[in-house]
Amino acid sequence: MNTLLIKDAHVYAPEDIGICDVLCFGAHILEVGTDLWPVGDPAIVQADERVLVPGLVDNHIHVMGASGGAGPTHRSPEMPLSWMTLAGITTVVSPLGTDSLSRSLPALLSRAAALTAEGISAYAYTGGWRNPFPTLTGDVQTDLAYVDRFLGVKVALSEASAPPVSLENLCQLAHAAVVGGGIGGKRCVLHAHIGDLDPGLSPLQEAIDFSGLPPDRFVATHVNRNPALWEQALDFARAGGQVDLTSQIQKDRGYPNAIEPERALLEVFDTDLPHENVSLSTDSGGAYPRPGDTRGRYAMAEPMTLIDSVRAVIRQGVEWPTVLPLVTRNPAERLGLAEKGRIAPGKDADLILFNRDHEIDQVWSRGRTVVADGEAVVRSDYE
């Protein structure tokens, strides 16, 4: 196995642990400390006090592509591996999107398996926008108990283009996540796309009250899409629910009422809500209208918006240890990914080293170099 030694990095693990060395053996971090020197002939990287952070965990990204609701040409293609690694993303969790008909769970699992073989860690959600809900085995609980790559069930709420979900059905899905995940030794969640309709995320709160399940197993994503939903989301997080902001929800991408990610993050850090109940994901891979395009063409949302949002609030004076947990530790702990989201002995060697301008210089995924000198050195076969 390869040995990697990163010397004299300013490590945010995501907490600030100062100038440290990080020693990795194979896919895992072996030791974090000072004056580390392994036996043998390791690859040594001199960080010279540059910032080193955990690889990012994107818990809502469409690696198989998404969209399609506006016709066949609206379907986005599969996302190349390098789009994610160049953005510092080393762990992804992907749901089906609006089109849960022509895109299937077997295809999604195949794409996740390919990305894992190519170098990152890729997982998925069962479920989708249809009713009855898409499953692999015919039963949501069975999917979650026996398909290791599934980490939860996706459902769409308060969304005009998705079928309504009754309170009873929603509670059944939540119980399937908690019990099915438990049978499989996993910490699965109900992961809910929230649309623009007036109920917002109130169906999730009703399901928590009715089911008696812990609120931290209910995740509301896309919560920064309009002001009313955003206010609901802040209250939901204060009450113990999990909220997931979306970095590609921006006014020039087809969300005229958006609370843009930089503003939303700054509001989170300026409130009394528990930051551990908040995460930030991309929703990349879907389509959005090209700004200023008069022909009505679409672009595919790119995952770089995640690290761009992090850097934007850092430029506003937010410290790395404040914002980093939302894209590392928080989503990893929410989904029971114990080896992800932290720099510590025994964790996966998923690491990002920045240059002096806080641009991504090098990325390691499970100890393997996937980005060097700001360039992707590992790519999908079909890139």
Q: Identify the overall geometry.
A: globular
Q: If you consult CATH, what is the topology of the largest domain?
A: TIM Barrel
Element string (H = helix, E = strand) = EEEEEEHEHEHEHEHEHEHEEEHHHEEEE
Q: Which secondary-structure class do the elements indicate?
A: alpha/beta
Task: Explain what you see.
The protein is an alpha/beta fold and 383 residues long. The protein is built from ten helices and 19 strands. Helix 4 (167-183) packs across helix 5. The two termini are 27 Å apart. The relative contact order is 0.18. The strands form three sheets. Strands 1, 2, 3, 4, 5, 16, 17, 18 and 19 form a nine-stranded mixed β-sheet that branches. An eight-stranded parallel β-sheet has the order 6-7-8-9-10-11-12-13. A two-stranded antiparallel ribbon has the order 14-15. It has two domains: 3-54 and 339-376, Roll (Urease, subunit C, domain 1), CATH 2.30.40.10; 56-334, Metal-dependent hydrolases (TIM Barrel, Alpha-Beta Barrel), CATH 3.20.20.140. The chain has helices at residues 81-85, 105-118, 140-146, 167-183, 202-211, 227-238, 261-269, 305-315, 320-323, 329-334; strands at residues 3-12, 16-25, 28-33, 43-46, 51-54, 56-58, 89-94, 121-127, 150-157, 189-194, 218-221, 242-246, 278-281, 287-289, 298-300, 351-354, 360-365, 368-372, 375-376. The longest helix is centred in the middle third of the chain and has 17 residues, at 167-183. Helices cover 25% and strands 26% of the residues.
